[in-house]
Amino acid sequence: MRRKASEIPSRELNIGGISVTLEYRKVKNINLYIKPPDGRVLVTAPPLADVSSIRKFLESKEAWIRKNQEKVRKAFSDVSRGEDAGKGKGAGRRISPEEQEILLARVLFYARRWEPVLKVHAKKWILREMKTRWGSCTVDTGRIRINTRLALYPEECLEYVVVHELCHLLEPGHGPGFWAYVEACLPDWRERRRILREEGGK
Predict the structure, then answer these.
(1) Transmembrane segments in this chain: where (predicted)?
(2) What is the Cα–Cα distance from 183 to 177, expressed in whole angstroms?
(3) Which end of the chain is more exposed for a tag (fewer CB within 10 A), N or C?
């Protein structure tokens, strides 16, 4: 009997001396994350993905992992888990230029991943401090704005916001058609949105 992804235990892999946590999830592709604030490496994979394929993927990304681990650790060296935990994560703390640079790189990474899938292209990505929104999309100009506070949130939250705003290039409103696009990209979007809402976003 085939086990569900949630029933397959996570495991640790060693890639060139880098510790990588492997988790099997209900996803279509192998996904790689560098988790703030300490640069922990997480890879998620479909339940049927074999470890040898995952290792090859990680080995091809080793240089990228090392580079971005260093960036994340440096940017978050002054932020403890306790400081930013809970509701209103990062509220009142200005995001530094270096953190914004890393955030923009992360945004563009997900944009490059999902724009070909959705067959859309954002003409410009803008980082902006916003009090009530995680992102906004101006369909006429193709400009998408991302809240700088997302620099303090997990990769899955940022990816959700990027996909959400890209889907607005196809459906301006939040009707069934819009959510169908989001669901097709991120089947677990409700969980990602829940994290954002619980921690003070809208």
Answers:
(1) none
(2) 10
(3) N
Decide: 150 and 130 in contact? Cβ < 8 Å.
Answer: no
Q: What radius of gyration do the chain's Cα atoms show?
A: 17
| Sequence-distant (≥ 6) Cβ neighbours of residue 89 within 8 angstroms | 149, 152, 153, 199, 200
Predicted TM-score (pTM) of this structure: 0.58
Q: Which residues contact 71 (CB under 8 A, 6 or more apart)?
A: 102, 105
28-77 pLDDT, tens digit per residue, is 899 998 886 678 899 999 999 999 999 999 999 999 999 888 877 765 54
CA distance 148 to 129: 5
Domain edges within the chain: 1-77, 89-202
